[in-house]
């Protein structure tokens, strides 16, 4: 005999599965007064905006090398990501093949949120990523930028001012980079 599930249980299970497989959800599902789920757009808090000074000056990459983000001779691209996130993987694989990586006038660093050094190195080696990587194991760096959502692509002027921070979900993420 087939067991029928109530619609609300089916919607709950579907929402749970989708939320576990996505890197970030910009939608929030709530139950309406009639017992059906409604989807509402959620905006993540952002703590930096255009014109602000980049809130980090120096970071150590996974190889132990200091990366000077206060250098006034280079534009910067800071990526906040997670190795488990499909959008982050897509963005870093695209950047890995991009001419931006060979541009000596741009300092690039991708910072893994809430992951260990070992996890990030293993992920880098498995996916053959050449993008310089760093670790933010306690989210202290990420919390200077936003309250949620990855990957984030942050472009910065030579004078260390934020040009733009994009939540880079989906495809064609590198097209969001604006100088």
Written as H for each helix and E for each strand, in order along the chain, the element string is HEEEEEHEHEEE
State the CATH class of the largest domain.
Alpha Beta
By secondary-structure content and strand pairing, the structural class works out as alpha/beta
Give the CATH superfamily of the largest domain. Answer: Glutaredoxin
Descriptive notes:
The structure is a single chain. With 179 residues, the chain is α/β, with parallel strands linked by helices. It folds into two domains: 7-41, no CATH class; 58-176, 3-Layer(aba) Sandwich (Glutaredoxin), CATH 3.40.30.10. Helix content is 21%, strand content 26%. The chain contains three helices and nine strands. The chain has a five-stranded mixed β-sheet. It is globular, with a radius of gyration of 19 Å.
Question: What's the layout of helices and strands?
Answer:
Layout: H1 7-21, E1 27-31, E2 37-41, E3 58-60, E4 66-68, E5 75-81, H2 86-96, E6 106-113, H3 117-127, E7 133-136, E8 152-156, E9 162-167
Parallel strand pairs: 5-6, 6-7
Antiparallel strand pairs: 1-2, 3-4, 5-8, 8-9
